[in-house]
Amino acid sequence: MKTAYILAAILLIVPTSVLLDVPLYNHVNPELYGLPFFWWFQGMWLVIATVMYAIAALILQHVDPDKEEFQ
Amino acid sequence: MIITLIIFIALFALFTSVGFAAAYWRKGDLSDLGQWALAGRKLGPYLAWFLVGGDLYTAYTFIAVPSAAFGKGSIYAFATPYVMTTFAIAMVTMVTLWKMSRRKNYITGVDFVRDRFKSRTLAIAIALTGIVAELPYIALQIVGMRAVLQVMLAPYFTSVTGVSEIALIISFVILALFTFVSGLRGATLTAVMKDVIILITVAAVIIYVPLTIKGGFAHAFQLASTAKPKVSFSTLPSKLTNAYISLFILSALTLYFYPHAINGVLSSRNLKSLRYSTAFLPLYGVGLFLLTLFAVLIYAVPSALKVVGGNGTLVVPALIDATMPAWFTGIAFLGIFIGGLVPAAVMAISQANLLTRNIIKEFKPDLKPATETRIVKWSSVVFKFLALGFVFIISPTYAISLQLLGGIFVAQTLPSMMLGLYDRSFLNRWALLAGWAAGMGSGIWFTEVANNFGILSTSLMKSPFGLLYIAAVSLAINLFVAYVGSAISKLISPGAAPATEKAGM
Asked: What is the mean pLDDT of chain B?
């Protein structure tokens, strides 16, 4: 139960923490189809975040003590 | 091209009939406020995904962000991490709020604040803030609609501004009529149509346009880097790092606390549908991400660049017009146009809900349900035209500043609305009110100073940490006052705060 919440929290927090570290991706190379790294790296995280959030949603829904109440 | 205009008008006629027909969809008693404003709470995961996504991706996406990026460069790439983060926050906060709303029959976010802190003054302050914050956001939608009309009608009229304003007023009358008749249901069904058209548009345009450009993105970035005045597109100037972070975090925190966003959340049918539809919303952000890049792509299309001139709001419509076949341009223009219209309707409905439920009813608690619904309908019409008036007296160049101004206001409701969801007994209502006043006052003051008391053009202020989004600074002041005030009230009368129910995540 507790592990599940920690896991969900990590899945929800990681994408934001990565993009908070602006110097990590604030450069031009490597380019992808002519897009600077600064752009495509952030765009890529939208897709990764969707997958991570979806897993978090599955976990949270599974362990939610109120799920019977809100069928 | 006349074909563009014909397709636009034909689709708009179809859109309008869908809006009216919606009154008969999953029929309920529309004179009941809950039915009218929350579509009877019958939305499943797919429709909820469309509706909430549709409300959140609007003229902001199509017009304001590309326009700002065109004028100021890579700082406005913040929209991408912003939409990513906002859904993680929503998966926690909105689930909590949704559960409480179900248990206690809240229709608006302010219903929660009223019940949690038992303060009429605080509830009214939060309701007024929500109403005021929506106005510039609606105005932004109208700026977007006007941009489409301007590009579309330009070949036919010498004075295109006057004509597009008349066309705008006509479409507003139609909008007012159908939301009046169909409520949120009208907005829901038309939102489905809008999103289908928009997703087709985005997918087609973002694949088609770079392919027509020799050298693709690389070439466009190279041309953009030689533009005057010089703006950084490929990376973020390092002195803007904190501005970037404050814009993306504060925008992410505030988005779901706009009254219209809460309205959409509360209309989810069940917990599962709310959770899963929210988790998949960052996918919508891919469209926003790609549209931001239109600000760069336009440099590779000289004819479109000429249409834009100095008016960045025309970037996306001009680029579509210059590169896509005429028939497709008609579809895309309609998509962007109703992409402003539908959210404007939803926003006005949420303002009207707040005004009626959380302000008027505080003074006239024995309002009959039928009277209540009538006031909501009429005031939603008034708010739409109020925002329309707003547009005619401001400059469209900095459209995004309208949304960022709204964000400064919404941020001041976060201590009561967001922290109130999890705080059991520490926060004191009078301290929250004082914090709200300090946040609003400082927010307005900083905005005035940053713009030299003139036309709204920036939402960033100078600070020891470089430029920062004003909402971040004002929220910090607000929180400081709210917590210090609450601590003092605890010292004076310990244990006086009302006990509250357990929230749950």
From this structure: 81
pTM of the predicted model, to two decimals? 0.86
| Other beta carbons less than 10 A from residue B501's beta carbon | 11
Look up tokens 């006043």; give the residue: B437
For residue A1, give how far its alpha carbon lies from the nearest alpha carbon of chain B (Å): 13
Q: Which two tokens stand for residue B172?
A: 């507003």
| Polymer length in residues for chain A | 71
Q: Which residue of B has its CA nearest to A11?
A: B88
Alpha carbon distance B495, B505 (integer Å)? 25
Are the beta carbons of A22 and B285 separated by less than 8 Å? no
The 3-state DSSP class for residue B74 equals: helix
pLDDT at B166 over 90: no
Any CB–CB contact under 8 A between B271 and chain A? Answer: yes
Of B68-72, B112-116, B177-181, B470-474, the poorest mean pLDDT is in B177-181
Q: Which band of pLDDT confidence, cut at 50, 70 and 90, is reported for residue B503?
A: very low
CA distance B27 to A49: 38
Q: Tell me which residue of B284, B236, B262 sits closest to B82, measured CA to CA.
A: B284
- In Å, how far is A42's CA from the nearest CA of chain B? 7
Q: What is the dihedral of CA B75, B314, B449, B388, to 10 degrees?
A: -130
ipTM, 2 dp: 0.94
Give pLDDT, residue B54: 59
Tell if the CB–CB gap between B235 and A36 is shorter than 8 Å. Answer: yes
Q: What DSSP line would sit under B320-344, residue for residue?
A: HHHHS-HHHHHHHHHHHHHHHHHHH
Any residues with CB less than 8 A from the CB of B234 and at least 6 apart, and which?
A28, A36, A38, A39, B74, B221, B225
Give Cα separations from B7 to B193, B330, B334, B363 (angstroms).
Answer: 15, 5, 8, 49
A&B contacts, CB < 8 Å: 127
- The dihedral over CA atoms of B62, B64, B65, B70, expressed in degrees to the nearest 10, equals 110
Locate all alpha helices (DSSP H) within B57-78, ordered by sequence. Answer: 59, 65-72
Residues 202-221 of B with CB under 8 A from A: 210, 215-221
pLDDT in tens, B338-383: 888 878 888 888 888 889 888 988 888 887 878 887 888 888 888 8
Q: What is the 3-state secondary structure (H, E, C) of B280-308?
A: CCHHHHHHHHHHHCHHHHHHHCHHHHHHH
Whose structure tokens read 């035209």?
B385
Phi and psi at residue B65, in whole multiples of 5°? -65, -50
User: CA B161 to CA B159: how far, in whole Å?
Assistant: 6
Among residues of chain B, what percentage have pLDDT more than 70? 85
Give every CB contact of residue B382 below 8 A, 6+ residues apart in sequence: none
Distance CA B149, CA B145 (A): 6
Instruction: Tell me, yes or no, if B80 comes closer than 8 A to chain A by beta carbon.
Output: yes
CA–CA gap between residue B317 and residue B303 (Å, rounded): 12
Please name the residue of chain A whose CA is at the shortest distance from the CA of residue B242: A22
